[in-house]
Write a structure and sequence with these properties.
By secondary structure, the chain is mainly β. Helices cover 2% and strands 50% of the residues.
Length: 302
């Protein structure tokens, strides 16, 4: 990959010490970070209509809300492993939970209910990320512990009628997922292949759609969270590389964003308003960083 211009991110907010988990490592920590003690592992950021940033803490079942000024609130804690959340409407979020499946959170009452917990009578491998279409359809990834040596990770679509469709079943650790601005295409992070795949959102009557490699990365672990802005630019969190990338609508690199601290870049989202700020979650330090993309406004293809 051609190395694009570099942008240095700034710290937006860091998880306060008062909200650090201080207990013993649980099963998720022992599986994914053996021998380590984690105070948090933040993922899956998104903004609500009021400009507040929401994100999850995977191992400890916590959902945080960050005010525009950077103040953190523990909005909900439950018995689960949430990996990401997205607004469904003003009062609710869809959550992908590694252990419990696809859930709905009522942001007012805190109630959590299942939307999909299995496919054809079998539990999911372990959900990773989601995207919500304007129609209400929910696209989500089911990675489990898949990899190049076991490429059976899956992509699903739950449509607004409640019908669950298996879209792909051959992805080496499907992770981040995002829709193009016109929702004609779906982008999927194939983490263990160090690539981002693209497929049509209009599915064939039967069987899987055609899918191709859209972007290939080098180094790090691979792409994690994805986000697309209104101009069609694709942002990619590069896992365990301390950086993120932004690509134009043709898949050409526009910028490499470097974090000042921490290597566990997990997710990205574009900010509200002009969308010229990219927010990046970094799980090693429990931080959210911000990068100004205004200099890229005229650098992409029309």
């Amino acid at each position: 990959m051609i190395r694009p211009p570099r942008i240095d991110a700034r710290l937006f907010a860091r998880l306060p010490a008062a909200l650090h988990h201080e207990g013993e490592p649980n099963d998720w920590v022992r599986m994914t970070r053996p021998g380590q003690r984690l105070h948090s592992f933040i993922e899956g950021p998104c903004f609500d209509a009021g400009g507040r940033l929401w994100l999850v803490d995977v191992p400890y079942g916590r959902i945080f809300r960050i005010e525009p000024g950077g103040e953190w609130t523990l909005a909900r804690q439950y018995d689960g492993e949430p990996h990401s959340l997205r607004p469904l409407d003003e009062d609710s979020f869809a959550i992908v939970d590694y252990r419990r499946g696809l859930l709905r959170l009522d942001a007012r009452s805190g109630a959590i209910e299942p939307l999909a917990v299995s496919f054809e009578g079998e539990p999911f491998l372990g959900l990773s990320d989601l995207a919500v279409a304007r129609s209400g359809d929910i696209w989500f990834t089911d990675s489990g512990r898949t990899s190049l040596s076991d490429p059976r990770g899956r992509v699903f679509r739950l449509d607004r009628t409640g019908a669950l469709r298996l879209v792909l079943a051959n992805v080496p650790y499907p992770n981040g997922i995002a829709l193009s601005p016109d929702e004609a295409f779906v982008y999927v992070a194939a983490t263990r292949a160090n690539a981002v795949w693209r497929l049509s959102a209009v599915l064939p009557a039967e069987g899987p759609p055609m899918a191709g490699t859209y972007v290939t990365l080098g180094g790090g672990l691979g792409p994690d969270g994805l986000a697309v802005d209104r101009a069609g630019r694709l942002a990619v969190a590069h896992a365990q590389a301390g950086r993120a990338f932004v690509f134009d609508r043709l898949g050409d690199p526009l910028a490499e964003i470097r974090l000042p601290e921490g290597m566990w870049t997990t997710s990205v989202c574009f900010g509200p308003g002009s969308g010229q700020t990219l927010y990046i979650t970094e799980a090693q330090t429990g931080s959210v960083y911000a990068a100004d993309l205004a200099s890229l406004e005229n650098a992409s293809h029309a």
